[in-house]
User: Fold this.
Amino acid sequence: MTIRVYNTLSRQKEAFEPMTPGRVHMYVCGPTVYDSCHIGHARSIVVFDVIYRYLMLRGYQVVYARNFTDVDDKIINRANELGISTAELAERYIDEFHADMGALNVKRPNYEPKATEHIDQIIDVVKRLIEKGYAYVVDGNVFFAVEKFNSYGKLSGRKLSEMEAGARIEIDKQKQNPMDFVLWKASKPNEPSWESPWGKGRPGWHIECSAMSIDYLGKSFDIHGGGKDLIFPHHENEIAQSEAAFGQLFVKYWLHNGFVNINHEKMSKSLGNFLMIKDILKAYHPEAIRLFLLSNHYRSPVDFNDQEIREASSALDKIYTLLERVGSVLDELPEADESGTGFGEKGTNYWHLFCNAMDDDFNTAQGIGVLFDAVRHLNRVLDEKSADPSSEEEIQAVCRDILNMGGVLGLLAESPAQYFENQRRTVLEKGSLDSETIEKLVKEREAARKAKDFQTADKIRDQLKEMNIQLEDRPDGTIWRYAK
RNA sequence: GGCGGCAUAGCCAAGUGGUAAGGCAACGGCCUGCAAAGCCGAUAUUCUCCGGUUCGAAUCCGGAUGCCGCCUCCA
Assistant:
């Protein structure tokens, strides 16, 4: 089985064949650290996190780099507003980013380079572009001359002539062509700046990604990812710079994720509807957010709203409920197999179906369908277990599959006990009840039931239900959980 | 104006030529003192509409309608 990926460059799915067999070098555009991360960032990062996990599981040795843009206009403006340095501002939001991503169970890339720590490499690329005649200097600014690069527009499918016709950008008189973009920006007073052959300045936005990806992954590498909005101009310009400077293919596969809308509207500053990750995490389990984000194919747009995220939460409950059931039957849950060999013969049919889905352009939505098929299968086996104690092996195998799928998706990282305990704690924090009161009521009801006083028992249950507490009578006692 | 995408049950969603996955919700049955959880079942004769290609189309082609994105900082 080969993995097939949709390549923005060719506008079709292609067989995935890394440049070096067995090794994958990938780069994803990370955030500009001037503000908190929103759900849109989360999608991009979670999607590529899953791709990263899956490639490793398929046995590839993956080198993954994701940058921080820590110097640009927005950062400078924000730092000035707050009266702190750009470095302090960047550090603050990098820390926050790591906290958010940690909560979302995102694996750290091998490298997380910052633009400001790669000024030498950036200057080096700019120099090279000037030497080769692709760039020109005007008053301490260095611009890339798009007309000199023949295949400019190949990623976004635009032609220079057409773009000029429709261009509504303010024309910069320093530019030879309105579409030329800045590689090195002369600094104004009181702006962070670095010495360069063209005077004090700072890097343009696009050049950092070229310089850093090349530095960590090579002049040609396999996968470059990011949000769809980065196709033009950011990635188009990265290609132009990199290929002009080094005369070789920059990136083999370009992958772009779709947007997150909020209540059917685009997230935008004018609407003020940015949903920050840290705020969503206050109300919902991080894995519910992941499950929600991965329920649609990564290239499609997805709409974030209360109903959707609640549904994802219910779906996640269903999986953890199953794991809890398994835990009550087996001595311990099987270990997920993250060694990368789990792909071979060990898995059952569910695991292979899941891999088939993932092989098809990382179709997590389909994969999640397989996951739920496995959940239903296992619930059925558990229902019938009393009649057939020899089913333990099957339970082990399917459960391991479920945990393996969870491992790829970055889900099911908690034990069921932890998961439900956290959920109960959240309910208690929100509500006016404390666990002692609940336990007391549960005991009273238990006593009433024993005395066959079902009227009283049901009254207590209804009373708790009104406070979003659902009772569940099990053979080994009554438990309570959050009622959706 | 240029480029691109999408339209599948009440909602979300997978499915790119072989006869409609999965989740949530609701309904019937099993289980239960009753519930809950879980399982089983029935739910789209049909995939926005109109044409065409084909033995066969949600899937390919043409057209229509509707919605959305990018072209400006943006994941």
Observations:
- The two ends of chain A are 41 Å apart (CA to CA).
- The longest strand of chain A covers residues 221-227.
